[in-house]
Specification:
By secondary structure, this protein is an alpha/beta fold. The protein has ten helices and ten strands. The strands form two sheets. It has a six-stranded parallel β-sheet, with helices on both faces. It has a four-stranded antiparallel β-sheet with strand order 8-7-9-10. It starts with a strand and ends with a strand.
Length: 268
C-alpha cells in the first residue's frame, strides 16, 4: 500500500488505471468502512481510500473537535484490506485543488439532516467536488447509514454528468443491531446500551402492521418517555425522498437522537 499526501501525485496516477474504486472516509475506521473497502477491492483493479476530516461539513465546532481520530489503526486496517493507495491530504491540499469547470448544486429538500444541520450538505458537496476531481474513480462506495448524503452526492454527480458510479452499500451493524459509527466510540457504556434499546424498539415498531403515522408517534413518545432528545423521526418515501404520512411500501424510518453529547443517525 502506498500512502500519498499530495493531490497532484494521486491525480496523475489515473492515466494507467482501468477499473478504480474510491472509498472516501473521515477516518476512525470500523467494520462498516472495512465492508466498503473490501467490496471495492473485490470489484476493481485498484482501490483508493481517503482519510480527511472535513471541517466544512461540521455545523458544530465542538463536534469537530471531539470527532474520534486513530490514524495508526486506520493505516493498519487499510493495509489488512489490501488498499492500493491511501490518500492523507491536509486541509490546504484538498481545498486549494482547482476544479476546472464550475459545478451545479443540486436542490436539497429541507428535511432530516439538511434541516437540522445547517450548512452540512454544502460542506459535503464542496469536499466531494474536490475529492472526486482529485480521484476520478470508476466507482465510489458509500454506506446507507448516511442515506440522505448518498442522495445528495448522487444528485450532484447526475446534475454535473460526473461519470463515477455511486455504489450504495448496506449498513453494517454490531451483533446487537446498532449501526456501526465512528461516534459510537464516544458513547459511555450505559448510553451504548440505551442506543441498542432505541434501535431495537424502532425496528420492532416498524414491523407492526399499523398506519405509518401511528408508528412515528409511538417512537417519538418512547423517546420522550425515556428522556432522549431527538431531532427527527420521519417515515421517508425513498422514491420521491419526502415525508410519507401513510405509505409503508418503499419507505424507511429515519431518525436522529442524542445520548449525552453524542448524536447518532440511522434508518430502518
Amino acid at each position: 500500500m502506498r500512502i500519498i499526501k499530495k493531490s497532484k501525485e494521486i491525480n496523475s496516477l489515473f492515466n494507467s488505471f482501468k477499473k478504480t474504486g474510491f472509498v472516501p472516509t473521515m477516518g476512525s475506521l470500523h467494520k462498516g468502512h472495512e465492508y466498503l473497502i473490501k467490496k471495492s477491492v473485490k470489484e476493481n483493479n485498484v482501490t483508493f481510500v481517503s482519510i480527511f476530516v472535513n471541517p466544512k461539513q461540521f455545523n458544530n465546532k465542538k463536534d469537530l473537535k471531539k470527532y474520534p481520530k486513530n490514524l495508526k489503526e486506520d493505516v493498519k486496517i487499510c493495509r489488512k484490506c489490501k488498499v492500493n493507495y491511501l490518500f492523507l491530504p491536509s486541509f490546504k491540499e484538498v481545498y486549494s485543488w482547482k476544479v476546472q469547470s464550475k459545478k451545479k448544486t443540486p436542490k436539497i429538500k429541507n428535511i432530516m439532516e439538511h434541516k437540522y444541520r445547517k450548512g452540512h450538505f454544502k460542506g459535503v458537496i464542496k469536499v466531494i467536488e474536490k475529492l472526486s476531481n482529485i480521484i476520478p474513480a470508476s466507482k465510489m462506495y458509500l454506506g446507507e447509514k448516511d442515506f440522505q448524503q448518498i442522495k445528495v452526492i448522487t444528485d450532484y454527480f447526475n446534475i454535473n454528468k460526473i461519470k463515477t458510479k455511486i455504489v450504495k452499500c448496506k449498513t453494517v451493524r454490531d451483533r446487537n443491531g446498532l449501526a456501526l459509527s465512528s461516534r459510537n466510540r464516544l458513547l459511555k457504556k450505559e448510553n451504548l446500551k440505551k442506543a441498542v434499546n432505541i434501535v431495537n424498539f424502532i425496528k420492532k415498531i416498524k414491523l407492526k402492521n399499523i398506519h405509518s403515522n401511528l408508528k412515528i408517534n409511538i417512537i417519538r413518545n418512547y423517546l420522550k418517555k425515556n428522556d432522549v432528545k431527538f431531532d427527527y423521526v420521519q417515515n421517508i418515501n425513498l422514491k420521491q425522498f419526502n415525508i410519507s404520512k401513510n405509505r409503508t411500501i418503499n419507505t424507511r424510518i429515519f431518525f436522529a437522537f442524542y445520548l449525552g453529547a453524542v448524536r447518532l443517525i440511522d434508518n430502518l
